[in-house]
Amino acid sequence: YQRRVHGGKKASAMLRVGFIGTGVMGLSMCKNILAKSGPGTPAGAVQLTVYNRTVAKTEPLRELGALVATSIAELARNSDVLFSIVGYPADVESVYFGSVLDHMPSGGVICDMTTSTPTLAVRLAEAAAARGLTSLDAPVSGGDVGARNGTLSIMVGGNRDAFSRLLPLFETMGKNINHMGAPGSGQHTKMCNQILIATTMIGLCESLLYAQRAGLNPADVIAAVQQGAAGSWSLTNYGPRILAGNFDPGFMVEHFVKDMGIALEEAARMNLSLPGLALANQLYISLKAQGGSRLGTQSLYKCLENMNRDLGVGQQTRTQQ
Predict the structure, then answer these.
(1) Helix axes 185-213, 253-269, angle to 10 degrees
(2) Nearest Cα to Cα of residue 48 among 64, 70, 71
(3) Could you report the average pLDDT of every consecutive run of 10 residues in the chain (321 residues)?
(4) d(CA 140, CA 160)
C-alpha cells in the first residue's frame, strides 16, 4: 500500500485503515489503533474507518474520531489497509468474496484476524493476488483482556513484506507478533493455540472443583500454584472469574466450539488423532446444549459442576473432617 497524500502535502500523508467487526475484540483493537497512532508514532497518521452490522457498536469509535462506513463496499473503496475480525469462516467468505475484493483499490493489503480455516486463508490470498491485493491471515490470542490492554498475541501468515509494512499497526494491538510463514500459517498456528487452551481449560475447571470438594479455599490454591509448573494464562485470568461467578465472555463458547471443529477437521485431513481435543470439544458441545453458547469459555466449570452436583459436591472428604 501507499499512504494517501491529502491536501497535496507530503507531511499530511494519511494511511486509510478500514476495520470490519467492532464486537468484544474489534472494539478494543480499534481503540488501540486510534490511541497509539498519529504523527510521530511508528504507526504514523491514520484515518480509521469502521463497519459493523450493528451500527450502535461503532458509536464509541465515532466519538473517538473514527469514521463509520454505511457498507462494506464503501469501507473497502476508501481503505489502503483493511482489517477484519468477524465470527465464522462463512462471515469471512461473505465479507471478502462478497464485497471487499470487488471494491478495494489495487495495491491494498487485507488482513483477516478472525480465527478461520487455513484453507480459506489460502483461497483468499490467491483471490486477492489476482486482483492486485495482498492478503494476510492474522488470528489473535489473549481474549478481551489482551484486546483491551493491547497485549494480544498475533500469528501472521502471508507475504513477509506486507507483514513488515503492517507491523507498526499490529504493534498498536499486540505485543507478541510473529510471522509464521506462507498464507494459512497464521491460522494453523492459532489451531495449535486452541488445542493447548482446550485441554488446559479442562484441567483448570477440574482443579477448582477438586479444591472445593477437598475443603480448600480455591483462591488460596490459585495463589499457591500459579507461579509453579501448573501456572498458565488461563489460570491467572479465568480462575478468579470462575470463583467470582463471572462467566461473561472474553471469548464465547460458540466461537470456541467453532475453532475446535476447525482443528479437528484439519487434523483429520492430516490423518492425525487428537483425543484430548476431541474430549474437550464434546464437553463444550454439552455446555452449549445446556444453554451456554454465549457464555465465556470459563463457563466449562458450570458444565463440570453440573455433572458432579448429585455426587456430593460440597461435602468434604473424610480426611478433611
Answers:
(1) 120
(2) 64
(3) 41 84 95 96 96 96 97 97 96 96 97 96 98 98 92 98 97 98 98 96 97 97 96 94 94 94 96 98 96 96 90 46 43
(4) 18
Count CB neighbours of 272 within 10 A. Answer: 11
Distance separating the N- and C-terminal Cα atoms of the chain: 69
Residue 110, strand partner residues: 82, 135
Q: CA-CA distances (angstroms) from residue 25 to 13, 38, 138, 149, 150? A: 28, 22, 14, 11, 11
Alpha-carbon 62 to chain mean position:
23
- Distance CA(321)–CA(311), nearest Å, equals 18
Residue corresponding to grid cell 488446559: 200
Could you tell me where the beta strands, DSSP code E, fall in 9-84?
15-20, 46-51, 67-68, 81-84
For residue 154, give every residue at least 6 positions away whose Cβ sits within 8 Å of its Cβ, in sequence order, or none: 113, 138, 139, 140, 170, 173, 174, 176, 177, 178
Output the CA–CA distances (angstroms, integers) from residue 184 to 42, 119, 159, 299, in the order listed.
Answer: 27, 7, 11, 30
Which residues are identified as catalytic? 190
> What is the number of other CB atoms lying within 10 angstroms of the CB of residue 130?
9
Model confidence pTM above 0.85: yes
Cα–Cα separations (whole angstroms), residue 222 to 156, 218, 225, 242, 248:
33, 6, 5, 11, 20
CA 138 to chain centre: 9
Q: What does the chain come to in residues?
A: 321
CB atoms within 10 A of CB 134: 22
Residue 99 is given by DSSP the state: I
